[in-house]
Amino acid sequence: HVEAKFDTPETEFMPLRDYFHRHSRSIFWEIQDIIPFGNSTWFRYLLGWLVPPKVSLLKLTQSDAIKELYDNHHFIQDMLVPMSCLHDALHLFHQEVHVRTCMLNTDNKGQGRTSLFVDIGAYGVPSVANFHPVHTTRRVEAFVRNHHGFQMMYADSYMSETEFEAMFDHSLYDQMRAKYDCAGAFPRVFGKVSRAVRD
Asked: Could you tell me the mean pLDDT of each successive run of 10 residues in the chain, 199 residues long?
């Protein structure tokens, strides 16, 4: 398809969301770690129609031992950092986890909508000798927080509540909780995203 397009004067457009999430269905390059034989001919011929599996199915079928193994030997994080500290952030990610694939996306949801942010997505098996999931993630979180960046909260977070509130401005959130008397009815957002509270 692509080679045929080179020979024509046509311009093909692709929606930006589709382009950025072209790897999402394969769970950001991690499907090869989950199903290591997934690229073999016999598997593709017989069971290729099953791939990629839904993440909810994978979570439903994994045992506690597999979950612990995955937690201790994988790094899955998305961090938004200002473009001004991209070089230092990439160096930190390389030093702390050194995963073989890293995805970068730009985002301009900065302070006053004038800052350009880059989403650094690191997914995979770290290839550094001193990887420890909690300590490594906390060091990366501290760097991002100190540079006025943000962690995507669908990944594991090991921040304390104070650190979480330093990363995300809670002033309007706290006003709304007080205004609608939510304290006794709903947990704080930190309780929904923190592993320490959930586990």
From this structure: 77 77 66 81 89 79 86 90 92 89 64 74 88 95 96 91 95 94 90 80
Task: Please name the residue that has the structure tokens 């350009």.
Answer: 116
Q: In what order do the strands lie in the sheet containing 102-107?
A: 102-107, 117-124, 75-82, 150-151
The tally of domains found in the chain comes to 2
- In this structure, the answer to whether residues 166 and 88 fall within a common structural domain is yes
Q: Does residue 77 lie within any of the structural domains?
A: yes
Q: Which domain holds residue 124?
A: 69-198
Residue 5 lies in a domain: no
> CA angle, corner 18, sides to 15 and 67, nearest 5?
165
Integer Cα distance of 111 and 141 in angstroms:
19
Choose among 103, 96, 100, 101: nearest CA to 80: 103
